[in-house]
Amino acid sequence: MVRLARGDVNIPDFEGFPIHVQVPEVRFEAATYDLLRSAPAIRASRLLHHRIPEQRPLEARRNIPADIAGRRMLLFEKSEGVNNVWWDLSLEAKVWLLLKLFSGLPRLSYADCPTSAPF
Fold it and tell me: What is the strand order of the sheet 2-4 is part of?
């Protein structure tokens, strides 16, 4: 399974995170997946490969890139099991699953919501 970033650092007028921010983020994420694999109680896909985006010289960034070298990429081993089963679930099964997913989350009350935006 491949996770490929939508933002490409070589696209003209790129407005995403700059390359000097993305490089340590990709390295940190790769190191995190390596650490998670050493904890058997935590289920995490095995990271097979990661690639840091390659930023081309400014002259080459004036046109839309013909490749994906400017996107960060993570390649994972496909886990066993069945994917995309949501559509096959009955309404009752969907409700049960959503209740299980959200049962451990803290509850919000109206008092927790800001009354006005700070801007």
Answer: 2-4, 73-76, 47-51
Q: Under DSSP, is residue 29 helix (H, G, I), strand (E, B) or coil?
A: helix
Q: For the chain, give the number of residues.
A: 119
Q: What are the backbone angles phi and psi of residue 48, rounded to the nearest 5°?
A: -90, -35
d(CA 1, CA 50): 12
- In a domain? residue 114: no
Contact assessment for residue 64 and residue 9, using Cβ atoms and an 8 Å cutoff: no
Alpha helices in 8-48 (DSSP H): 19-37
Over the chain, what is the mean pLDDT? 85
| 119 belongs to a structural domain | no
Domain that holds residue 6: 1-79
What SS3 class is residue 14?
coil
Count of structural domains, the chain: 1
Percent of the chain with pLDDT over 90: 46
pLDDT of residue 105: 62
